[in-house]
Amino acid sequence: MTKKAERTTAYIIETVAPIFNKHGYIGTSMSDLTEATGLTKGAIYGNFENKEALALSAFERNRSLLLQEIDNKLEIGVEAFDKLFSLLSFYKQYDVFTLPLGGCPILNVGVDAQGNNKLLAAAVKETIKEIEGKIALVLENGAKKNEIRLPVPPLQFAKQLFTMIQGAVAMSTMTQDRKYLVNTITYLEYLVKQELKK
Q: Which Pfam families match (predicted)?
């Protein structure tokens, strides 16, 4: 692939990622994509096999931005508590972070793809597992170093924590009220202290 073709492909993905995320796979029309990119249908499909391949690339972009940010937050501090509170602090501002992405890619694409795009649905499921795994690793390392006390296995705690976070994201998205997010994360900060403190 030439440098110009690579730049065009990257431009298309970057431009259409928020549109797919906001309007969904079915809800995004070809005219939405040509209008946003300023390219013809032929130019877009010259870079992607079909709409599904483009939607998957768009999700992959948003997914990698989210995972990179989560990695950054989990690298902050030395102890497990520092890392967990850094992650929770990120989620307090999650709506601000996801604004340029067109909203939460896990919530939006996950719900939208369930009935109409198996590849996208599988990609979201994989992303959820990856995030839960990252949280579980922090918990496991924290328990090994005797920094925290784990009442349940690390992955079980990570899954419950992430379920509550995503539930708060869903509620604040559906109600357009960020208090659901802020209040739930504040409660989770308290819960983490109560449950994990030695």
A: TetR_C_13, TetR_N
Task: Judge whether residue 7 has pLDDT over 80.
Answer: yes
Size (the chain), residues = 198
Report in angstroms the alpha-carbon separations of 162 from 5, 86, 133, 159.
Answer: 38, 14, 10, 5
Distance between CA 38 and CA 63 in Å, rounded? 25
Q: Which of 56, 47, 92 is closest to 73 using CA atoms?
A: 92
Q: Is the dihedral of CA 76, 80, 81, 86 positive or negative?
A: positive
Give pLDDT tens digits for 144-162: 999 999 999 999 999 999 9
Q: What are the C-alpha distances in Å from 12 to residues 6, 7, 40, 63, 180?
A: 10, 9, 11, 16, 34
Residues 6 or more apart whose CB falls under 8 angstroms from that of 139 comprise 80, 84, 148, 150, 154, 157, 158, 196
Q: Rounded CA gap, 46 and 172, in Å?
A: 39
- Is the Cβ–Cβ distance between 104 and 22 less than 8 Å? no
Does residue 137 contact residue 149 with C-beta atoms inside 8 Å?
A: no
Q: Which residue type, as a one-letter code, is found at position 99?
A: L
In which residue are the tokens 């959820």 written?
A: 128
- The whole-model pTM stands at 0.94
